[in-house]
Amino acid sequence: MSANEGWRAFFDGHAPFYMQNAFTRNTEAEVEFLVGELRLSPGARLLDLGCGTGRHAVELARRGYRMIGVDLSRGMLRQAQAATQAAGVSVDWIQADAKRFAAVACFDGAICLCEGSFGLAEAGEDPIAHDEAIACALARCLRPGARLVLTALNGRRLMHQYSAEDVAAGAFDPATLTERVPLEWDSETGPRKTLACEHGHCPEGLQALFETAGFSIEHVGGGTAGDWGHRPLDPDEYEIMLIAKRTGSTP
Ligand SMILES: C[S@@+](CC[C@H](N)C(=O)[O-])C[C@H]1O[C@@H](n2cnc3c(N)ncnc32)[C@H](O)[C@@H]1O
Hints:
By secondary structure, this protein is α/β, with parallel strands linked by helices. It has helices at residues 5-14, 27-38, 55-62, 74-87, 127-141, 155-161, 164-168, 203-213; strands at 45-49, 66-71, 91-95, 107-112, 120-122, 142-153, 172-173, 178-187, 190-199, 215-222, 239-246. It has eight helices and eleven strands.
């Protein structure tokens, strides 16, 4: 299986059903929150990295922002394209690996939400290097002063969830906060399955990662889909939120 084959193949197969996930139901409220946090006027150029079906990008485009959505999965981007047509808005959709997305300092803001590439490593890939590459890609894309809103898996929850037996069985690596995830989906050629990894983060590690990449941190707290806001992280909640501002330096 080639690099990215696991997650890409999974999301290609899952794409037609993605918007049935309960966590997608709060998109409009989430977009209201994003508009407040990014502090940009309509017309600003925004990047949605790991945009999926484009649920945030399309709503932001409706509000007048110039949106570029990047995703690895052509299946997800097909859904995104259909959503833009249904909404009567225009978004540039780009199929690319977030780790290598190479626009330079041309965005006024960025979002990377609900593990939109960040934290989704392939089996056998170094999960820390994976997320470092995405943090650096986000830093490269943003002009100094631009803001980023990102949500990531909460590694503290993973530490509580997994037992010593799970660790011994290889289901969870407490050193990197990475869980092994069996992926199963239906393809045109029948049911398929493979293994991938999900990399969790704790607040201080997330903060250090993005500071090193070239951001100043404005907020790290709870960020589970459906419950966004400036609030502390509940140790057992699903996701962490980071809000950060691009500094002047280049990583
Ligand atoms: C859980 S979905 C999140 C989508 C969207 N941000 C949302 O909030 O609904 C994760 C997305 O990340 C994409 N993805 C995974 N790895 C990626 C990578 N290396 N580069 C770009 N996109 C990636 C997947 O294809 C999928 O669309």
